[in-house]
């Protein structure tokens, strides 16, 4: 297991000043391997403005010559160790607890960030309202919070591309099996998409987040509905 440092509170990009965050839901975004907090923060203008977006920087520096930062090591024989993913999720939860008292906190992660987002749901099932997992995966192994997560079944959106060759197939297969048993899963596989985020995927994410705002308000009224062709439920073919 690797040593995962605490998140740097000075390396966070917020979409709103402190005085403008009161009584608003917070969406914490987690970048992928080799990127930084500015990467996904660029998506903020395309997401529902009701959310306060907080883009955090991962705590590790990948080996040279990789740029940016990482949440956990993927190099070597123990790359993608589930214990490291859990340690990264625990550091994320520490930062969230210290940085916001928002009633609704959701997670949106890409690749490594998506894996950490799901792991944070597992470590602390009551802490987060939902998660968006873009081109990521569910880490193998069991955690103490898995039973509580399966009971609570928070909403999770999982999007990935048919031409994504970055995430190993065994992890994709595991995620296909694991997510529907623990979450209220929706998502889509995007034809031709590699390891990235497409316009149609961003449209689906925006619709998913709109429904989470309705959940927080205690009503489905006003939520933007994604057409059935653009969001497939987990048991159907597109996620498999």
UniProtKB/TrEMBL annotation:
Residues 19-209 form the Phospholipase/carboxylesterase/thioesterase domain. It comes from the Bacteria. One of its GO terms (molecular function) is hydrolase activity. The keyword Cell inner membrane does not apply. The keyword 4Fe-4S does not apply. Gene3D superfamilies: alpha/beta hydrolase. Residues 216-240 are annotated as: Disordered. Pfam families: Abhydrolase_2. Keywords: Hydrolase. InterPro entries: AB_hydrolase_fold, LYPA1-2/EST-like, PLipase/COase/thioEstase. Residues 227-240 have a biased composition (Basic and acidic residues). PANTHER family: LYSOPHOSPHOLIPASE-LIKE PROTEIN 1, LYSOPHOSPHOLIPASE-RELATED. Belongs to the AB hydrolase superfamily. AB hydrolase 2 family. This is Esterase.
């Amino acid at each position: 297991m690797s040593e995962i440092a605490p998140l740097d509170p000075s390396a966070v990009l917020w979409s709103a000043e402190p005085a403008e965050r009161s009584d608003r839901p917070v969406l914490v975004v987690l970048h992928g391997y080799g990127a930084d907090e500015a990467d996904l923060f660029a998506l903020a203008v395309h997401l529902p403005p009701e959310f306060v977006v907080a883009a955090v920087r991962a705590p590790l520096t990948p080996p040279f010559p990789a740029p940016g930062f990482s949440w956990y090591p993927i190099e070597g024989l123990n790359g993608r160790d589930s214990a490291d993913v859990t340690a990264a999720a625990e550091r994320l939860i520490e930062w969230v607890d210290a940085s916001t008292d928002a009633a609704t906190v959701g997670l949106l992660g890409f690749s490594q960030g998506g894996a950490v987002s799901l792991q944070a749901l597992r470590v602390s099932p009551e802490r987060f309202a939902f998660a968006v997992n873009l081109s990521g995966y569910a880490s193998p192994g069991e955690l103490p919070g898995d039973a509580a997560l399966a009971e609570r079944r928070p909403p999770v959106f999982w999007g990935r591309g048919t031409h994504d060759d970055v995430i190993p197939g065994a992890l994709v297969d595991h995620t296909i099996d694991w997510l529907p048993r623990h979450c209220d899963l929706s998502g889509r596989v995007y034809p031709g998409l590699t390891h990235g985020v497409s316009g149609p995927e961003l449209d689906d994410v925006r619709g998913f987040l709109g429904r989470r705002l309705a959940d927080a308000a205690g009503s489905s009224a006003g939520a933007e509905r994604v057409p059935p062709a653009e969001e497939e439920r987990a048991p159907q073919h597109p996620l498999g």
